[in-house]
Amino acid sequence: MIGALSGRGRGAGQLLDRALTQRSFAFYVAHCLAPTLRRGDVLVLANLPVHHLTGLRQWLAKRGVEVVFLPPYSPDFSPIEQAWSKLKNKLRTGAARSYDALKNALHEAIDWITSQDAKNWFDHCGYHTQVA
């Protein structure tokens, strides 16, 4: 799964049936994430190779979105790491044993993440955001 988190709460998500690649990440950004971004947003990405798409910064800059990469492996500065932790905890308790059961449990786990959770995680990581 790939997803986004903002000070407003959980954002665009996509369930993948294989490992994330630059191609699948480019699809996610263009078709899932970009339509949800607003002028003035800052997209913070982990410093993973698949996140380094040629032209990504320029493409989003034309839409008024800044792209910032975290230092290599710095989960303490990534609020989405807290979201993934909560999501995985919910999935573990559901103990889904089939793909369909996992998809259902995943939707329930995603709904368990609240906008207040997101705000708290951003604050915890040192990003004191003002939600517009």
Automatic annotation (TrEMBL):
Q: Which InterPro entries match?
A: RNaseH_sf, Tc1-like_DDE_dom
According to the entry, every stretch annotated as the Tc1-like transposase DDE domain falls at 1-102
Supply the PANTHER family for this chain: TRANSPOSASE (PTHR46564)
Instruction: Cite the source lineage.
Output: Bacteria, Pseudomonadati, Bacteroidota, Cytophagia, Cytophagales
Tell me any Pfam family this protein matches. Answer: DDE_3
For this entry, the protein name equals Tc1-like transposase DDE domain-containing protein
